[in-house]
Structure formats: structure tokens, C-alpha cells
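Review box. Two proteins, two foldings.
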Amino acid sequence: MALKTRFTELVGVEHPVVQGGMQWVGRAELVAAVANAGGLGFITALTQPTPQALREEIERCRSLTTKPFGVNLTILPAINPPPYAEYRQAIIDSGVKIVETAGNKPQEHVDEFKKHGIVVVHKCTSVRHALSAERMGVDAISIDGFECAGHPGEDDVPGLILIPAAADKVKIPMIASGGFGDGRGLAAALALGAEGINMGTRFMCTKESPIHQAIKEQIVANDERSTDLIFRTMHNTSRVAKNAISQQVVALEKEGAKFEDVRELVAGVRGRSVYEVGDNDAGIWSAGQIQGLIHDIPSCQELVGRIVREAEEIIQGRLARFVTSRAAVVA
């Protein structure tokens, strides 16, 4: 049984399993491993310090796989924004055929990517934003539920509601993000109307993930309660791994702290050091509630194969047992 969907056909991959962009994590070795396993991986453009470095990372990924992969470009407001147009041009010049966009108002980027025949998958956290992206001309949607790592939006709608609500209205292919990590999740996402799953935290905890072994082991040790929501009072909610720093930020917010009061605690350079040196409390780092369902550190090949196999067994076995023919009922 092959799980072929509109999404796998759109991007030309074997399995409906995606590794989305992750700051400091979405590097060539992980992306290529996902691609070689039959899934779709995304290099994170802004993890690279310059557009030229991104070009080199794309070429490094090509040296590790002959299968399709993409690049994530996240557009966020910043005092000193990165040169998004230059990163975009690096993606185009490198011949990348699939891009994941995220963040605010990506219209100009979508337009440019589409001019060059690039498939655009836009990541969003609400039905209204998914519909806006569809009108914008993107090719597929990645809908992100409240369980996710990173920015879940401000509506607090979990995947069990958000995915079918979006599926009822979105006409283009849609994959489900936030809270996925095994075959049960994939089968559930397909049942809810999605055509694949996007995973971040689960792929962080693989052999090829370019983060410190101690952090992978921390993810395994954590449970579904091991996250904090920071920046709630600033209406820029972010779900991160619970640690000494996140608890401090939450406490300061309860006292009325502004961003300037926590800026040093949440600095990106500190978060990066978590992955580099393996100190869980060195800074803020993203992780989702799916931590409660992560119990090992497999290779990407092992993980993707297991997820697809489990989903197939659930669809053909467990769910099929609940279906009783009309003739049997009459008899």
C-alpha cells in the first residue's frame, strides 16, 4: 500500500512526510537524509549567514541526495531585517524547485518564485490565513495547530479542529503541522482531510539532526507538558522547550515585562548555543508538545519508514476492523 496524495504528486516525493524549516536545524545533512528516506526536507535559508552561504548549503545538500528537497524562507518583522530579496534570488539561482514560505505578507516572494516555476508551500496557523495564501497563488498549505513548536498564532486552535476546518475550505493540497511524530498521527491527519504531515521536533530527534546529542536525549526525556508559551502578553506567542530560561521569561511576563526586559534572555545566539554545546538551559529553544510521543533517536530512514508502515497498518488493519458490511449486519 502506497500513501499517494495530491501533495506527494505535487512535489514528487514517495511519502507524505515533510521536515519543515527550523532555525539552526534545517541544514543539508538532515534535509538530504529526509529526502533519501522518501520524504521532503527543507533547508532553512536564514540559518545561513549570507545568501552566498545559502547557495553553498544548497549545493552541499545536492552532493548528499539526488532526490527532491526545498528551502524555507520565513519573513518576520525585524528592526534590521535580513536581505530577503537576496536570499530569494539565491534560491532561484540555485534551481530549487520547492519553497516553504512562512511569516508575514509573502506576496512579492510568492510572485517571484512562481515566475520561475517554483512550487510554493505556505505555512500558516489559521483558516483565514490559509485562504489568503490560496488567493495569493501558493500551491499548497501547511496548516499549523496550537500543539506546534515555534509560533502557533494567537487563536489557540489545536489540530483536531484546525485541520478539518481548513480542509472544509481550502481547495489546494494541504499538509498538517503541529503534534505529529508517528504513524498514528499520519493516519489521523489523512482522516481529517490533510494530504500529509509536517514534522519539526520529531526530526530534531534523529541521528542526522545537526544538534547536540544531549538535546536529543532531553527531547526523549521530556513529556507533553515540557513546553512553555512565551510572548503571550506581547501577542507574539511562541512555544518553546520548558527550561530555566523559559520559566524566567514567563514569570517576568506575569509581572508586566516588555520585550526589552527579556531581550537578552531570548537572544537567538543563546538559543543557537543550546544546540551547539548541549546545555538545555543555555537559552530559549523551540520544541512542541509531541515530545511526549518521542521515545528514541532513529535515523531519518528508520523514522519515515516506520511512520508510513504504521499508518498503512492502521488504515488497512485497525480501522478496517471497524467497518462491517451491510450484508453482515442484516445476517
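Next protein.
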Amino acid sequence: MSEAQSLPTSTAAKATTENFKAFVSGGFGGVCAVLVGHPFDLTKTRLQTAPSGTYTGAIDVVKKALARDGLSGMYRGIVPPLLGVTPIFAVSFWAYDASKKLILAATPKRASEALSTAELAAAGFLSAIPTTAVTAPVERAKVQGQGGSEQKYKGVFDVMKHLYKEGGLRSIYRGSGATLARDGPGSAAYFAAYEVTKKALTPAGSSPSELNLGAIVFAGGMAGVAMWALAIPPDVLKSRIQSAPTGTYSGFMDCARKTIAADGVSALWKGFGPAMARAFPANSATFLGVEASRYLLDKYI
């Protein structure tokens, strides 16, 4: 085989390896995020989906969960996100890397290979599109598993079986539009904030790609804060659509209208406290897991 023939093969193999690394490191980061953030997420979901007056606030949710189920009650519903988190975060980080390459390919006459903040945000938004195909059913199962005081299901497979029996794949994927409405802008803010913050914290003469634990932890936390500063209203609507009985809402806008009519505009910000409390530690853990695993993969593969 000539050098000209082997070059494309070598390039394709390198691209496949890079895709694999992005996929695996994203999944590992997601596991870290769930282990750290699930109690906060459970609190947020219950505040968003419970009838008005059920809880006085986030602390009340925690107190009642601990009184009823003990510490394990704060991890109810963790199996669906743990089972789904690897593909969700793996696809998200793979799609983000792919989207950055797509932007570079679409702008060949560039002065610099470094993406602007707007381009990073665009890549983040694009990453949410394929990720929604995995996120929506996992979120649907998670919301069903977390909601209410009664243990309705025996586990994640029981949840999925019930949802499929209720309305097939359409039931399992209920809330997909709301999920994308949350994760599109949220991912744009998420990845852009991480890259910009990490670059700002990188010492002069060093590269942001080098492993700097302090910068990673802080930038990851700020990425989570940036995302959830935008994502709470669509997240509230997503949680309500996915937890309500069939036929309650005809769609995203119908849910918004009925939520505001019943509980006021402030209802769109339910769960803001737990979400923001979760945002920094969970996403610090996410990016630390992503960067550390990527460092090891680059070293040994």
C-alpha cells in the first residue's frame, strides 16, 4: 500500500479513536454527576411536580424524604439516570466534539483554529439534538420513579414496562420537545461557560488542554450554574409533562399556559434553589471525571 493510500486510513482510525475517547470520558463524567447530584435532583423534581402546598420548600422535601425512607430515600429513582447516564453524557460529549469539528469544517478560511465563544455555544446547542433521543426516556422514567410518597414501581424496568403498556414509544418519549427546549440553550451555556472559564483560569504559558484540577473543578461548577440559570423554566414544564396523567397537557405551550394560570409565573421557577445548589458540585464532578478519564485514555490509547 502506498503512503497516499495509507494516509486516509490512518486519519479515519485516529478519528474513530478520538470519538471513542469522547464517548467513554463523557459517560464516566456522567456517573460522577449522578452520584454527587441525585439528592438535589430528587428534591428539585418533587418541588416541581407535587401539588401546591405539599412542601413548604426544599428543606421540607428533604426532611419528609428522610423521615419516610431514611437516607436511601434521597436516592430514590437513581437507577434510571445511572443506567441512562453513560449514553446521555457519552453522546453529549461526543456530539459536542463532533459539532466543534463540524463548525471548523464549515468555516475553512479561518484566521484561527480556536473557536469563538459564540461558536462554542453553537456547538453546545447542536450537541443537545442527538442527546435528546437518549435523555428524554431516561428523564421520563426518572421523574416517574422519583415522584410522590408511594413506591409505585419495583424498578426502572417496571417503569418502562408500565409506560410502554400505557402508550407505547410515544409514552416513553413524552416530553422530548420540552427536553430539547431545556437542553439546547442549556448546553450552549454549559459548554461555552466551561471553555471560557477554564481558559481564563489557565496560567500564562500553559494550555487549557493540560490537566489543571483547580481550573477544571471551578470551570465545571460555573458551567453547571450557567446552564441551570437558563434551564429551570423549561425543566419545570418538562417535569410536569412527564409526570402528569396522559391527556393532562397537549404540549409544551399548553403546559406553560396551565401552569401559569394555576400557580402563577413563579411556578416556572420551582426547584431553582435545589437545582442551583446541585449545579456547582455535580458539574464540577462531571468535568473532573471527563478530564481525568480523558487524560488516562490519551495516555494509554
